[in-house]
Write a structure and sequence with these properties.
Length: 397
Amino acid sequence: MKNLLAKIKSLAESYTDYTASNLSKLVKIKSLSTGEKAMAEELMRQMVEAGFDEVRCDGLGNVIGRIGNGRKILAFDGHIDTVDTGNLANWDFDPFSGEIRDGFVHGRGTVDQKGGPAAFVTAGRILKEMAFDRDLTIYFTGTVIEEDCDGLCWKYLVEEEKIIPDYVVITEPTNLNIYRGQRGRMEITVTFRGISSHGSAPERGKNAIYMASRASLAIEKLNERLTSDDFLGKGSVTISEFVSGSPSLCAVADYARIHLDRRLTWGETKESAVAEIRELLTGMDAEIEVLDYEERAYTGLRYGMEKYYPTWKIEEDHHLVIRAQEAFAGLFDKEPLTDKWTFSTNGVTINGYYKIPCIGFGPGDEILAHAPNEKVPVSDLVAASAFYAALAYYLSE
């Protein structure tokens, strides 16, 4: 294995410019959720160029590359959509320049999350050059709509494409650490119904804003007492939107709605989170709703799911975690840090719903995700491409 790892590492380093250049090409393509078509086409071109055994696009628009045809299935996943740029005045460079300088590739998506796919394309090229022939099928998925609805893409891959891997590596940014879980999340709205009256006589009505305000203050207190997990940390809830309405600005508000961003730690579920909110609304005319997502993909397909994204983690002694740690140590002569994400990933369906073992390993630091001046170290891309190729050998033993 030592000689094999040395060869993988050498090849990854020899493809440094190739990997950085591929990422630069991806970054130059703006690819917001449901608008990933050009990005998907470029990623497919890169997979074909790298010599993948099969490259195709599914009905939702996910790019699927394959190497090998073994009994065990390993998948490397990276979403190819990004958030928008925000205020351009906060950027020191063109977000879509893809400029390579000072040891970094610069631009929107370099960290979240096009760096991962660029690295796994190189990993695929390395595996083909090494004539990988183990009893393993490896899928490389460039997935869509993750930023708008994390996990929806894997719902399609599992339920419609019938791709059910034995292991998945999520290539979201981990700063080259091994991640094995994340808090879940859900989106909840609470709608309050009041009774309008003339503003000169508010006692005749029932003000929905007052109800929503009392509920909001109770939710603020709820956040302080939510449960915690030794590994994933504390659950949280915050109000991200407050909307109200009335017949006029001279009338008591008969409508109010709040939108809740609920982060779920281990042991918390959709049912428990809704029950906590319902308890706070006793005596109020209010309705709780867990929201749904349904949009039209760039392929024209309408597809959706409930906006409940379950918490997930796998144990530190899981076979996948152990083999990933061994591959990392063998490549880089040091022990990896094993940790968790702060944000949410496609793992919410991969493991949260379907219980497929998955870990995270990706180039870049998550603090730059969704931030201006996003950039990824080229050295991270090289290390990630080596790790992905090495892990395929470790998992096929």
